[in-house]
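Sequence design from tokenized structure. All designs in this work follow the same two-part layout: the structure record, then the generated sequence. An example of the structure record is given first.
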């Protein structure tokens, strides 16, 4: 299974680069080695935004260049908006990027025929989204 790695994970791992025994860094390295890491344009932008030194920006940009962007279609943004609206009605908040990740994860899972239960699990296990279309 492929994994869309969120900005928060990239940030933590990149900040902890000097810690060789970090389990999060090890997990990301394993995903990278297994060619399972996926990235989307909005996450790439979040990671690269706010870097003060041009040299650091270029180094990180070039490093992230090894991970091509997962294509995003208009229907993915529309599905993300549906997730946003469903969650908001239930008092759950998230960012636009969070809900876009949900929509893309659903599409990836659906393409493999494993979506079945109408739910999307999100990072940290805190967001479970019921399918508004069911």
């Amino acid at each position: 299974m492929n994994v869309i790695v969120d900005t928060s994970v990239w940030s933590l791992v990149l900040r902890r680069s000097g810690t060789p025994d970090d389990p999060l860094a090890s997990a990301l390295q394993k995903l990278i080695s297994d060619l399972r890491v996926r990235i989307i344009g909005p996450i790439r932008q979040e990671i690269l935004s706010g870097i003060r030194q041009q040299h650091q920006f270029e180094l990180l940009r070039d490093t992230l260049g090894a991970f091509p962007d997962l294509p995003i279609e208009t229907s993915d943004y529309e599905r993300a908006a549906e997730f946003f609206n469903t969650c908001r009605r239930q008092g759950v908040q998230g960012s636009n990027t969070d809900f876009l990740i949900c929509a893309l994860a659903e599409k990836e899972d659906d393409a493999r025929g494993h979506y079945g239960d109408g739910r999307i699990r999100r990072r940290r296990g805190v967001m479970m989204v019921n399918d508004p279309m069911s």
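The radius of gyration is 16 Å. We note this feature because it recurs in several other targets discussed in the main text.
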